[in-house]
Every structure is written in structure tokens, then in C-alpha cells.
Amino acid sequence: MATDTGTPQRATPAAPAPPPAGPATALLRARPVQAALLTVLLFAVVFGAYAAFGSLPTRTGLDLGLGAQLDRLYAWVVANRNASPLFLYGFNYLSVGLGSAVILIDQGLTLLTWPGVVVLGVFTAWRVAGWRVAAYVAVTFAVFGVLGLWEQAMTTLALITTSVLLALLAGIPLGIAAGRSQRFYRLIRPVLDFMQIMPAFAYLMPALLLFGIGNPSAAVVTTVYAIPPAVRITAMAIRNVDPGAVEATTSLGSTPWQLLTKVQLPLAKRTILLGVNQTIMLAMSMVVIASVIGAGGLGDAIYQALSKANVGQAMEAGLAIVLMAIALDRVTAAAGDGTRTPAIPERLRLPVLGAGVLAAAVAALAARLAGATAWPAGWELSIAGGVNWLNEALQDLVGDATKALAGATLNWVLDPLRAVLTDSPWWLVVIAAFVLGRLFGSWGTALTGGFAILACGLLGAWEFSMDTLSQVLVAALATVVIGFAVGILASRSDTFAALLRPLLDAMQTLPPFVYLIPAVALFGVGRIPALAAAVIYALPPVIRLVDDGIRGCSPSAVEAAVAQGSSRWQLLTKVQLPLARSSLLLAVNQGIMMVLAMVVIGALVGAGALGYGVVFGMAQNLLGLGLTSGLAIVGLGLFLDRVTQGAARQERTAHA
Amino acid sequence: MNSPTTEHPPSDRSDGDPKIAVHKLWKIFGRNASSVLGTELQDLDRDAIRERTGCTVAVRDVSFDVLPGEIFVVMGLSGSGKSTLIRCLTRLIEPSGGEVLLDGADIGGYGPQRLRELRRHQVAMVFQHFGLLAHRKAIDNVAYGLEVRGMGRTERYARAREMIDMVGLSGNENARPDQLSGGMQQRVGLARALAVDPEVLLFDEPFSALDPLIRRDMQQEVLRLQQELRKTAVFITHDLSEALKLGDRIAIMRDGELVQVGTAEELVGRPADDYVRDFVEDVNRTDVLTVRWLMRPPRDGEPLDGPVAAPRTVVRDVVPLLAAGSAPVRVVDGDTLLGVVGRADALRAIAEDQTEDATKAAADSAAAAGGPTGDGRS
């Protein structure tokens, strides 16, 4: 501003300039800051009033008694599981069928013996993704064996295969239909949106109710959880097919079927394979969580180890899962982009395929003849003891520091916030949710947000919900602060960004479950490790969106600002951050949703609250507790998503 | 330079049945399109209709005939509705009203199967952005139309190879579209349209995305193929020089309506309104006007031993003949004398050009001198 620098006013009459704004007033004018201040004010006023006129009211009976109803329903289900036609001819069949599918694939893998599986896996990886990935896959298999986790790894693989096949079988046709029909897309989009904001934990209880505990339940949950990206990405792929190619081929008289098979599907193939990759990764993360409802395999190994607080054992299974996730990701991603697929002349393709299958069969046969169907016990090597020793050494070294950090966070931030939320009269929190919704979005957002919070109370899960909410808010704040700082740094330094990229890639492929392991190693059990895991889990997408957003700013706008003499700080605060706003808002939204998902899973390491309700409900057959907690998670998710999305939407309309 | 070829000049145009007849065609985009047609709303102008109903009128009451074997050019600026119009001809966009007759049959009543047959056999289209299938080799792109007809592989490959040779792409059969340059890609597009041996070719700004030099090559290619194959063609362009070069007849389109339909000479010599006049203002008339346009009956006593010229010779090409001798040039068609063009006639045609330029220059300088407040051109 001319007035700031004191340069002489120009002769031309200038438009009335806004009052010179220092950073503090500019910050005050930012809507999120205003909203936060307003909320704090609201709470302060009400608390002040109560302090002046007496004590806080005890909590009112908001609970509708849904939990008891659900318990009765569960009792009915248990009593009638083998009598009601709904179960006898419906869910039970499905359950048996799914169970058999998982067992069949597991049996198939056993039948192949470990040498057969290794040869087949390595061959497939080579054929799709080249030598380097194949070598990586070979190492992965070796680690499964060496750690003595071969059986568990094969069970997990069988579960993933079953669920992914089912998810694709349902998801791709739906996606094609949605890609070709705008009306159908509009019909299913809200369902997909809803499914995607539902934290993984909320899926578990209904599946348990209908299918009981065990692998079939896990397969259902995993399938349902993995369907949305298959539908969404297939629809997007079909939609993004060059409209010129579609028009040109229509103009040559293609039938709708010809259009689909000769034009749309081939042109959409690569993107659809990307959807397959996403589906597999989601299935991977769910299959591990599903160990809570009795899925066997690696997830179960972690679950068992964590419940015994045995970091070493958890680390072994965690390592196996991490390696498997990265292997699955690399192989399917290569199938999608195709650049690393070895070029094999067309006439040799079938012979090469035959040779691979034959090699696997020979390896399997040889292993059977030699009687070495299981991984030789002599080749196993446990690292659990070593890890535990290391962990203890680490605890000796930094244990005091982490304990102090944890204690401070707990006493000074988390507990006070939880106290405010749980001690407030429920209507105050609902009003605050409503006000926040209105401030960030529309009246509709306000109503949805307010009702979602109210629902937590109506479900009888008010205290758990507020506890979870306090954890989410603290972790989200940490995530946003750290994520924005790192993201801005990455956007300003290509070297730093290049170093960060493989790390973020790897972190984004890991199932959320495994983040608990290092958190427990550092902070023991309780709410703090859950928060730490949530922050680490949610950081990669936040960092990435901030970095991409700033780098995506129109280069000409940046150039113009530099040409006008902006300093680097001015460039960042006046040009790049405002231009990247929609990315930044999306980063906040994504960060908060991932934090919520993780905080709930944190119940497994003692974070309590809603996640505990789900786990305890499942463990004790308390459907009422489990399901109401699950629904309250959805309520919180809906509130947090709508409010942060509302901000993004407002942004978009303001720019339109 | 090439004179605009006029295969069917107005005088000798056969009054046979049109290949394509478009009659009172309308296309209105929007939810309540049906509420506009047939009501008094349809007489309002575009903006008023959009304000009242939210609908956009893309094609408005358009009628024209395309004669067998001619290249009919539709020219207009972007947003004038020309691309919508050409898509209505095979119902790639469904017209809102009016009819399109192909060989006298109304295609509006065709069911999906019959419409596909029409697209597979009778009418093929070339697109601005090529619309090639990135996952197929050039030859498979060219053979696509034959493939969806159900033609066997050997047969359609033979035909596709022929077409690839015809458009000058021999040797590139196995290239994928992204390995070809823009001009080559459009040759594939052209070959694909020709492969089905259609009666009618539709071109939707086929060369707009190409570099100027390549565009000129492609225009030559179209003229050559047209001479060889004698297809009926409808050609959309926003480029006046392209229209003049290719069009037997040219329709000027504006805001969804046809402003004028005529030969290049008619547009340049007798623009229907200021809009068309603006358009053709910068055209060098001597490159467009032909002696047939200027000729008059010989006057008494005029010498009739001057050089001869065909009726379609442009003025620019008779100037050297007139300069070489004093006798007027005789315009002959075979043995018949159609008329003569004297020096004065040619000079007048050139002079009209320059008068216009001179008037404009004078007006400009007047505006510039009018005062600093004026927003005259700098």
C-alpha cells in the first residue's frame, strides 16, 4: 500500500484504500479465526453465566434409549440366527459362501506350497512391473517366511483377494453405469460420499450383527469399504474418455455396446486400473482393522501383540504388512501406468505366461515331493526380542522426554478441552455446531452439523462423543500446523520435496493400523499414542495438498507479484496462500477426517471414547453400545466433514 | 494462386433434387426448450429468450439445400451455431424442430438402428480435434467404421490400406495417433471418414487446429479428393479464406441464423448486409470476382479479336491480358461467346476495392483527429 511505505501519492485519484492491515488484524479477519473466537466467546459467556448464577446443570436425559433397543434386537438375532428365514436363507448363505471363498483361496495358496507361491508372485510382479519390483516381491515373501508369519500373510492375502474381487465385481459395473448415465451418477453419489466419510471402525458392528464373528464378516466389511473408489474412479475414467473420440465413433454408427467395448473401456483402462490399485489399498487397510471382528492373519497378529503391549511382536507383523502393502501398491500401480511393464513381443506373450505358470507348478510339485510344503522352521528368525530390547533402550533414552510431552499435552490441553466439552450443557455444544456450520457453510450445513452433534447425544453416546471430539480437535490442530509448515517448506525447496516424496508415498500406502505400533513404542498406551498415530497418519495428505496447492498457483500471477517487488514472505502470504486456498481447505478437511478415523482406531491402544465403545461392544456382545458408538462416529464425521467442506464450497462459490 | 473453384456456378447449376435439404431447423439447448418453439417466444432474440426461459438458441430457423457433388461451406464466428448445425445433420445433436432430408427422406423419423445404418454407410464426419482412438493403430482407426459394420478383418484392412494410401500416409499404418503430427492425425481422420465410402462428408472445422502451412496442404487435399471422388460435402469453418477457397457455395451464419447463402462472388460482390460486408471487407476482390461476374454484352463496334478467358477466370488473371492489348477480353464457354470484359470494367472492379480502403482510411484519420477524448484507434 502506498500509505504504508510513505511514497508520495500519485496525481490520479486513487480508489478509497482499505485501512492498512497489519498481520494481526488480517488474521482477525480470516473466517476460521473469527469462527474460533466466536465459539470460545459463546462458551465463555455461558460458563460465566453459570459461574455467576450457580453450578452447571447436570446433564439432561438426552439418551433415547436406543442402546437398550439394539441390545434387544441383538438378543433376537442371536436367538433366531438359525431359525429366521432372513438368516437361514440370506445372510447365513452369504456368510458360508464368503467364508468358503476365503478358505478356497487360502487352500489354493497352501496347495501351491510356499515355493509355488513365491515363484508365481515373483513372476506376476516381473510380468507386470519389471525386475526391480519382482526382486522386491521376492524379499517381501522371504520376510514373511523368516519372521514366521507365512501362514498369517497367506490368510491376509486370501482375504484381500476375495474382498477385492467382490468389490471390483460390484464396483466396476456400477462405475460404468455411473460414467455413462448422469442420472445414475447423481443417484449414487450421495451414497458414495457418505460411505467415504464413514470411518472404517463404523463399518464393523453391522457386519458383526449380520454375519457373526470371523472371516466372512471381515470379507463383507472389507468389500463394502473398498467399493466406493472402484465405482468413483471407474465412473471418472469413463467420463474422462475423450468426448471427441466418442462423438467420432458414434458418428460412424457404433451401437452403445460397441461404444463401450471398443472405445470407452479401452481408453479408460489405465484409469480403471488406478481404481483397482485404490481398491486394493483400501481393502488392505480394512482387512487389518477387521481383525477386531475375527479376521485372521497379520492384522490379528498385530491386534494380539498390541493387546499384550508387546511392541516387538507387533513390529514383526507390522513390518510384514508394510512390505505387503507396498508390494501390492507397486505391482498394481505399474499395471496402471504400464511404463515399467517389460516389452514382450506379442507372439511371445502366451508362451511367457505359460512358462511362468509351469514354473510355479513345478516349484509346488517339487516342494510337495520334498515334503517342504511349509516354510522350514530352521529358516525362521524372530526380531521381536531385539526390537523389544531396542525399544527399552529407547525408552531409557527419551522415555522421560516423551512422558513429559505426553503429560503436558494431557494435563494442559486434552483434559481441559474434554472437560469443557463434556461439562457443557448439551445444547450449548449443539448450538456451537450449528453456528460453526452457518459460518462456514449454508443454513443446510448448519442444520446438518447441529443435528449430527445432537444425534450423538440422542444415541446415548454423548460423553464418549465429546471425548473423541476433544481428541480429534487437538490432533487436527497439530496436524494442520505441522502439515502446513512442512508443506510450505516442501513447496519452496525442490530438494526437500524430492526427499519427502518417497517417504510420503510409503506412508500413504500403509494401513492405519500399523501407525499405532511406533506410537505405542514411544508413548506407551492411552490417549496420547492414539493422538500421535493420528497426527502421523493424517500428515502425508495434508503436506501433499499444501505443497501441490502452492506449486499449482498460476505462474504468471507469481511472476507478476515478483516483478512488483514482493518479498518472499509477501509472496507467500499475499499471493500463494490465497491462491492456493481451495487446496488448503481441502487439506484441512482431509486431515480432520483422517484424524477422526485414526483416533477411533486408537481405542485399541487405550484411547477410550467412541472407539472403545465399538471394540468393547463387539468384544462383550453389547450391540447397543457398539452400534450406537459406531453411529456416533458417523455423526461426528458428518459434522466435521460438512463444516470443513462447507468452507471449501463457500470458497468455490465466492470465486465462481 | 488458386482461383476459387466453382463447380456449380449459379448459371449452370442443375436444378436437380438436393442431396441434403434442411428445412426450418431449430436447436435450443436447455431444460424448457420445448416451451419456446411454436410459441411467440421463438420470435424474440437470443438474449431475450435466454433471460425469459434460460434456454440457449443455437440454431434458429435455418433452411438450405446442398446439391449433389458440391462443397457447401458454413462460415461463422465461434458461438454462431455452426458446429451444432452440422451435428444436427446426422442427429449427433438432436434438433429441436424442423427437418433434415437426405435424398428426400426425413432422418428425424429414423429409429436408432436406421440412424446407425445412415451413419455407417451414407454420411461420415471429420472432426476438429480428430477424435482418434489413442489405443488403436492408424489402420485400426481407419477401419473402425467398417469394423462396427461387421466387416471381416482382411477385407477391412485392405480397404483401410487403400484409404491410407489415398490420403498420403502410406507406411504409417501401424503408428499410434500420438506418434503422428497433427496434420497426419487429421489425414487419418479423413481416411476414416472416406473408408466407409459415404455419399456425404461432413467437415467440422477440420483444419482449425493445424498450422497454417499444413492447413493449406490439407485444403489442397480436400480439393483433390473432391475432384476424384465427387462426394457431397458440408464444410464448417471460421476462416473466410478457407471458405472462399473450398466452397462452391458459402452460407454465412450469425447467432444461429443464416445471413446469406451464395457463391464467393455473390458474397463479395453483393453482401446481404453490413455483417457480411464487414466480413468480406478485407478480401481482395480481384482474387474472387470472376469475369463471368463482370462481363457485359459486347458494345457495337467493339473489337472482338481480344484474348479469350473461361467464365471462371478471376479478375486478377485477366489484368495481364488486358494490359497486353487494347481489345476487351472475350468470355467464352467452349465456342459460345458469353460476353466481354474491357479495361474499364476490370479497373472499376479494382477501384471499388480501393475506394473502400480510401474511404476507410479517411474515416479513420478523421476519427483520430477528432480529439484526444475520442477513443479512436491509436
Estimated radius of gyration of chain B: 24 Å
What profile does the largest beta sheet of chain A have?
none
By CATH's scheme, which homologous superfamily of the largest domain in chain B applies? P-loop containing nucleotide triphosphate hydrolases
Strand segment tally of chain A: 0
| Helix content percent band of chain B | 25-40%
Task: Indicate how many domains the architecture of chain B comprises.
Answer: 2
CATH class of the largest domain in chain B: Alpha Beta
CATH architecture of the domain at 426-544 and 592-656 in chain A: Orthogonal Bundle
The class by helix and strand makeup of chain A works out as mainly alpha
Termini gap of chain B: 34 Å
Q: Would you write up a description of this structure?
A:
The complex is a heterodimer of chains A (656) and B (378). By secondary structure, chain A is mainly alpha-helical. Chain A has a domain of 184 residues: MetI-like fold (Orthogonal Bundle). Helices cover 82% and strands 0% of the residues of chain A. The N terminus of chain A is likely disordered. Chain B is an alpha/beta fold and 378 residues long. Helix content of chain B is 39%, strand content 20%. Chain B is built from 15 helices and 13 strands. In chain B, α6 packs across α7. The radius of gyration of chain B is 24 Å and the shape is globular. Classes of the chains: A mainly alpha (656), B alpha/beta (378). Chains A and B meet through α11 and α12 of A and α3 and α5 of B.
